[in-house]
Design a protein that fits this description.
Layout lengths: L7 E4 L5 H15 L9 H10 L6 E7 L2 E9 L2 E7 L8 H12 L3 E7 L3 H9 L3 E6 L10 E7 H4 L4
Antiparallel strand pairs: 1-2, 2-3, 3-4, 5-7, 6-7
Amino acid sequence: MGATPAVTTERASPRDAGEIAELYLASRAEALPYLRRVHSDDEVRGWITHVRLVSGETWVARKARRILGFLCLDGENLDQLYLLPGQFRRGIGSLLLAKAKERSPERLTLFTFQRNTAARAFYERHGFRLVDLNDGERNEEGEPDALYEWRRSFSGEPL
């Protein structure tokens, strides 16, 4: 029997846009079924291709050529972190988050929806602290959100 392929992280390329968009759509549908849809699937695909992949950094977690998760980083702002449905609690999110901390080793901020208790617990386990709660006026879904911050100094993690 051969070895199981490892999960690796690498910068996303334009050829990944379609797979990332489908992962994003599937993940949000499964994890956030209550979320108001404000963009069509085609608009999401265009946003991934023409905005997300050309601004900041997009990293993917890949196993055997299949993308299992991705993150988008704009400086210290962790803008997106999504996993393929069925890939939760396998270390993939932690691997991606470690990449974000490597790329921004002093500080990260992120928003997540207040009702997304699984994401909130994940970030809190990884040293993020709640900074602010909002009624939804700062996101286009109008969904109450939470601002989190991680600082290396919070946890004493080595670089």
